[in-house]
Design goal:
four-stranded antiparallel beta sheet, single chain, alpha+beta
Length: 145
């Protein structure tokens, strides 16, 4: 009596392999997503730190600020980093200068944790605050609260 030789995989073996690959893909994908969101947060923080430096340059430049922050939120020192932040999934931002032009603040929502906001201001403050929004964190008084 001749035994039939198998020339391939059975359907059950193929389904098991596909299920294992699907589980491994899900695990890897969830880890990669958290790393991507963390890198977006780092980019937002980096751009706002650039805004912090640019604010000082604006204030000291006789052709632009000349001892005042009035108009800083419309200056390229803010708008260019702001555009880079906007490019990161349309993150919400805010920039305010107080009425006297002596203070400013800027903030953006972060990507990795819903409700987290990163704020910088002219006094050198750089902080992350949970469960708030940019309008609350960076009011018209021009300072991170």
């Amino acid at each position: 009596m001749k035994m039939r030789q198998s020339k391939g995989f059975t359907i059950v073996e193929l389904l098991v392999v596909i299920a294992i690959i699907a589980v491994l893909t899900g695990i890897v994908l969830s880890n990669v997503t958290s790393y991507i969101n963390s890198s977006k947060d780092a980019a937002i923080k980096g751009n706002l730190s650039t805004v912090l430096t640019n604010g000082s340059v604006y204030y000291d430049d006789p052709a632009r600020g000349n001892g005042s922050y009035a108009g800083f939120c419309g200056d390229v020192g803010y708008t260019i980093p702001s555009l880079a932040i906007t490019a990161i999934d349309n993150m919400i931002q805010n920039c305010n200068v107080d009425v006297s032009g002596t203070a400013w603040c800027a903030c953006s929502t972060l990507k990795s944790t819903a409700g987290d906001v990163f704020c910088v201001d002219n006094t050198g403050v750089k902080k992350t605050v949970s469960l708030t929004d940019c309008a609350t964190e960076c009011p018209a008084t021009g300072a991170c609260v």
